[in-house]
Amino acid sequence: MATKRTSSRRPVKKKKSTKARRPKRHQPETLRLRSAAPGLTVNDLQKSLAFYRDAVGFAAGEEWRENGELRGVELKAGAVAMWINQDDFAKGRDRVKGVGCRTYFNTIQDVDAIAARVKAAGGTLLHEPQTRWGMRDVGIRDPDGFVFTIQGPAKKGR
After folding, report:
1. CB atoms inside a 10 Å sphere around CB 8
2. Could you report how far apart the first and last alpha carbons of the chain are, in Å?
């Protein structure tokens, strides 16, 4: 028994998409960020700039000036950025800063060396470098009372 052929073409196979399959997104859609840059309002911009640059090791980036006066500076460390800006004291000179907030920074550098640099420059450590949860970390307080933790790889034997 012969089969009637309606076309001389072979059936076409569907090509697989070259695009990677995206995972199904949660609904409602959640926030997806690509970077974060905290901003700190400081009492003395030059003092804070010197602390973050000279004691901690950030590099000064972009500057924000108003009527020729330096009002803010971007601080960079690897892929991380943050801003410090001069307080205008509109909310009072006795305003407490840094309460209830801590920033965590992660590095592959030697945390003990960073802590030693901060101490040598007169900076305040909240605690000496310590190893916990498989990481080495040090807590630091800046001149205005903002606190942050720098964490990195644990040293062997610690």
Report:
1. 5
2. 83
Question: Residue 47: in which H helix or E strand, if any?
Answer: helix 45-50
Separation CA 138–CA 65 (nearest Å): 33
Buried b / exposed e across 132-156, counting CB within 10 Å, b at 16+? eeeebbbbbebbbebbbbbbbebee
What's the pLDDT score for residue 156?
73
pTM value surpassing 0.70: yes
Q: Going from the first residue of the chain to its last (158 residues), give the mean pLDDT of each consecutive group of 10, the final group possibly shorter.
A: 57 65 76 87 96 97 95 96 94 86 94 97 96 95 95 81
**CA-CA distance, 78 to 150, in Å (whole number)?**
13
Supply 133's token pair.
């949860």
**What is the rounded distance in angstroms from the CA atom of residue 102 to the CA atom of residue 96?**
14
Residue carrying the six token digits 């933790």: 149
Domains of the chain (ranges, CATH numbers): 39-89+98-153 (3.10.180.10)
Going by C-alpha positions, the residue among 77, 57, 61 that lies closest to residue 140 is 57
Give the span between the Cα atoms of 110 and 118, in whole angstroms: 13
